[in-house]
Protein 1
Amino acid sequence: MLGIETLSSEQIAFILDQSKPFQEFQRHPLKKLATLRGKTVAVAFFEPSTRTRISFTTAASRLGADTMALQAESSSLKKGESLIDTVRTLEAMRPDGIVIRHSSSGAPEFVAERLEIPVLNAGDGTHEHPTQALLDALTIRDRKGKLEGLNVTILGDILHSRVARSNINLLSKMGARVTLCGPAMWLPRDLAFLAPNLRLTHRIEEALEGAEVVMVLRVQTERIHEPSLAPDEYIAGYQLTPARLQLARPGALVLHPGPIVRGLEIDSAVADGPQSGVLEQVTNGLAVRMALLYHLIGGASADAPHPAKDRTNASD
Amino acid sequence: MLLIKNGRVLDPATKTDAALDVLLDGDRISKIGANLAAQGAEIFDAKGLIVAPGFIDLHCHLREPGQEMSETIETGTRSAARGGFTAVCCMPNTQPVNDNASVTRGIVERATAAGAVRVWPIGAASMGSKGEALAEISAMKAAGIVAVSDDGKPIANARLMRQVMEYCNSLGLPVIDHCEDPSLFAGGVMREGPHSLRLGLQGIPAQSESICVGRDVEVAMLTEARLHIAHMSTRGSLAYVRVAKKQGLRVTCEVTPHHFTLTDEDVRYDSHYKMNPPLASRADRDALIGGLADGSVDAIATDHAPHHAASKDVEFDRAPFGITGFETAFPLGLTVLVDSGKLSLTRLIELFTTGPAGVLGIERKIAPGEPADLTIFSTSHEWIFRAAESPSKSQNSPFDGRGFRGAAMATIVAGRVAFRR
């Protein structure tokens, strides 16, 4: 599972469908399955992350798997070890799969070509963040009932966003109409080639008009190589405010991959408002990641899992 | 004496294309003619093969001194000989940088002792290639350099470029520039465009190169010096070179085999597709082939840039730039340019012989009294390039495993057979 780009719409729909039972499962009082008992998931984060790492670790543990964690700050990378040596060392400890977050685009693919075990991309550089796009899609489908034909606007620093790339791939494949909006230097014209029927605009009013879903991206100060925009300029031009949200369809869903920088890309009133799906996204992240781990590591057939049947005693 | 019999002599310099024999005596060509005979001469049967002047590579990295883990003068020149090259110009970005006569002498001595082919060093333009003060160019010339360049880095300061050109002009040396605007380059790892966006790899705009070519052409206008554009990769750069040539300036340029073969569409998360300049767009690639065909481009140069496996087997954005190129250069020319009908065979040979010689201000031809440097090749020999079988210490080639039609069958340097397939 390296990216959305190589998936078909059928495969995407399958993963979303498979995530449904795990979504319900998050509401159970006893959140532990035995499905992956005895399996081990290596969670290798070569880039700082809190929510995605916790989400994957929790997803694995709720499936009954053990995890082995690697974090860049405390790892041998600091001692000059190469990525390939690090992951081969992890593989020698015989995990059943590896989840990778890395600051270099293509690092999960690089690793997957060299290891025997399944590799799950938890975000690579400015390339893809497939589980984020899947959890976004699950959230949209829940709220809007469908993906096909929906007007979705992605707002912010598109150029440096792996979340945007995965979402562009997924939404286009599922038949949504995608509009990309951001300051000119973060919205290169060539983005139009990423998928068919993409609309690009620098004007937020134009981007929001008729939108049924608005995805607000974080301004990624750590990935910006060029002189960046003054925060006040960004706020004036692109912050999602209650007034601007009025331009979208009534009841438009607002999503944000987090972490949110309140007062920069999004006004608190919008982030906390009734149209916000931000916390559902977090919960759905668990469901999507459980479904993927189940299928990649459990070696499962196309049958849906049965959380109720598989659930074990919490003290197990 | 070595008598090369039954071959087809193809020499763009003398406009020869005929079944002729060539007699070599010592390190010189002695005679050319039909049905030659020579008492006691060793016979080389070139039946079915083409005998051309020895190929010259204007641009390579032999990594010695200082980076012998990746290549040495011995291993690099053995690889060059397999590619049909009889002389290679090595760039000065060694450790230490070839910016003074003692380093130049070291390279020349090592090449004399262990080189399979001729090694013509290129000296640094500035001290340490830092772009600050002029290197000891005159002393290096006395020690054997054939050109100057800060390859790997552009000469960022136009005033320094002017001084380098003026000084080199007085010494009769060409100035070779690696054209790149550092601020536009900005840490990029492949050509900016739809494919860099798709892969999420930091892009380098084509204009990063052409802006610098434009500036260099302006400085060449100011100085009337000889300017050579290294590994040119964009149609914008080509347009500046064409303007310069039209105005009668002594501006020349080279294109690498990978830039006329591959495009940014071929880039994958595999560092064998990472080089600088990066693989260009299809439109740029096609324009470069047009330039190779119409004479706007003077030479094909390999930019042979060996890197040992451990340094390349890393994340794409962390890998060093560069690929090896000696053994695939001419075969790619035959396959991509000649077999496709875009260039004549004679034009391709020019790009490996008279073209690069002209850039260096020398002649290269098959005539009595000339150095006995010859490349004997086949246009039909079918083979597969296996990087692991190369004498080079490095295997960083995107063409590993590729099948070819045509190859150098023998490389003769100073009358000696340096390589025979």
Note: The radius of gyration of chain A is 19 Å.
Protein 2
Amino acid sequence: MIFREVEDRDLIAKAKRGEVEAYNLLVSRWERRVYSYLFRLVRHREDAMDLSQDVFLKAYQNLPKLDDPARFAAWLFRIAHNEAFSLLRRRRPETDLSEPGHVDRGPAMLPIELSLAVEGALHRLSEDQREAVLLKVYQGFKFEEMADVLGCPVSTVKSRLYTALDLLKATLAPALLPQEMRRGES
Amino acid sequence: MSCSNFDWNAYALGEMDAGARREAETHASACAACREELAATRLTLDALSVLHEVEPPRRIAFVSDKVFEPRWWTRVAETFLKPSFAGALVIALAILVHAFARPAVDQKQVEAIVARAVADTQDRYESQLKAVIADYEDIQKQNRLMYIQNTGLIRQ
């Protein structure tokens, strides 16, 4: 992770000097993480793909404004957050996001029942709560970095995340408890 | 310390410093309710970890790809905003404006200036010629005198 950060910093410096290939390499390194975050947030493959494209284009255009390359990840996800919520706001009147019928599931994963249960539980969260879980659990951001990404105080970040975790605990309990019981029996 | 002092979510999410972690662990070792709460949080986080990153259906277009190429009006605007181009443009405009805006030439005035210059040159030439002729005549006179004197000496 430290090596990656050092290399990212180097690539950012080169990209700022106009080295296009350095930026292309940054895109290859971050596209999966950004796409995953956007896909789980907007729940639509093509929308997530278009948003990812926009995120990297905006990041490229605004790279000279990034003062501290060490904050690249939070800065990039801040752009992704803005793009995603801009789409969600446009989409909201037509689409009821809580309907299970609109869920665009990712590739099948094992154990399949648990994966589906987790996806279902995540989709039952509000967008703000789901995003807090995505940034903390799947992207590994610290609370302060999340506050930067979301543009809100750390207390708000913790409140959204803890509420989401409580809801996930309650939703996933039926899927998790039998497993635990099976573990206990064996 | 009471159970409410411990943030088990922060503990499970790795957001506690080493000191606070040690305190929490000491408390949990003696408190079944907190152990249960921490276990439930960890179980949920473990369950969430079954979801992996999603592969994009196609790669993100690179900066060197067509999609990132600036549109024609952007390229034109950028060209006009370049300092070297802008400088050349200003100079060209200045030349153009000067060519059209300079005052019209007065032909009579030009002829008068030329005539005066010709007359000055002619006067200068004539005075120089007169001076040369005068010098020549002086030398001739001196030569004649010297000849007469020399001839007289020979006769004597």
Note: The mean pLDDT of chain B is 84.
Protein 3
Amino acid sequence: MRYDVQTDPIDARDLEAAVTHSGAGAICTFTGIVRDNSRGQSVTHLDYEAYAEMAVPQMRKIGDEIKQRWPGARVAMAHRTGHLEIGEASVVVCVSAPHREEAIAACKWGIDTLKESVPIWKKEHAADGTFWIEGDAKEPAR
Amino acid sequence: MAVAIGVKVRFFARLRELAGVETERLQLPAASHVSDAYDALRRAHPSLPARESVRAAVNTEFADWDAQVADGDEVAFIPPVSGGG
């Protein structure tokens, strides 16, 4: 199992290598990518900030719960921090499981839960200004 | 004089910008709650938002507002998160 908050680019293949094993029939990898638009405005780049000392244990909790809900699953997750350009991967969640149904369901649950409970924040640099994204809301940033 | 405890406060993202600091040492009366810490911080930094839009964590675990804080705790105030894609 592997849980990282990192400034370096994420290599999804590395995470897949961390979860693969001879009993795994499927690996599902979700990659979140920096998009060039948000809420109808063009986006130039993002900054991500993390409470890393808490984010990594929260990711581990999600991984532990996946292993309980989907027996046989193995999990790896990584999230970028700092300055990200359009097209870069901000987050990767990777789950291996005996069969594809579990791998896909566990991976979806993993990214959905990460977005709710892992203390990481996105600052969006857009055509109409710079904003902190807070859940579904956006607030002007300094 | 009442016994006091010292906690390390951490602010993140928009709260860090609104408070103007990343970390702060805070003295509180013994048996204070997380909510007492935040109320004291709002008096010092009036631009911090109301509690309703903030979550707290004590020693890197999410904590309820009525949880007690102890000497040496790290208390973080966390705006709604937005990690992921």
Note: Chain A has a mean pLDDT of 97.
